[in-house]
Task: structure prediction
Amino acid sequence: MIEITDVRALRDRIGEEIAVGDWFEVSQARIDQFADATGDHQWIHIDPARAAAESPFKTTIAHGFLTLSLISTLVRDAMKFTGLRLAINYGLNRVRFVSPVPSGARIRQYLQSIGRSRAEGPQSAIPDRLFEMGRYGQKTGAGWYKYDAPGSRNRTPDPLIDQMAEEVAKKRGIARRPVADEEIVARITTALANEGARVLEDGFATRAGDIDIVYVYGFGFPRYRGGPMFYADTIGLPTVLARVNEYRVRFGDYWEVAPLLERLVAEGRGFYSEAGAAKASV
Result:
């Protein structure tokens, strides 16, 4: 186990191995306990006899979320942070269960600093500062706005936010400017289309229409726009590609062009074209 006294020091170790934890056995008893806790009693997890006869893995396997839930334990076995008052699970950018964990398997934590990921981008310090100030939004009467009372929806702009934004921008050397509605829409829809192309290429969606249905009926994307992938086709994929390249120059490498998007533009195709769909499903 190693001891980390300053989290910021990890920035100087990008690409390096940070720590390797102890081996941890994922026993059948633990899998059964997780099944009881979550209500997921699928036979591939809890029935060794059936798994041996019918499962392609020939044994029971751990729930994917069981493996994820062990991260906290595995990290604590590998490294210790000192000087922190508390730690909060901020979430995960991207998780894939690329291989099963059989019952009885041993796993351990391997930690490497990879720096800022493509999905993260530049991070603002303001949300963390608001959290530290206890400004959690409507329920506390203040967040990005001020509210008449805790729980109220009547909001008013707070000069403190503008002051904080000015301080952070000055510290990072960013010239503040008005951002038009059109630019906001362009950046959001471009990110959706580019990531959607990656989802298609990785095989997590079969058709562009599958992604659009999810966004229209699951996330409230305007129906008359057809969804982020259809909308990208209507403005033209060359325009989308040009925007991704522009944003990469302006904002960094996390704006990485999806290979499928580049290929479709080179072929003069769209997400909804027959050839484009064939490419996406390869």
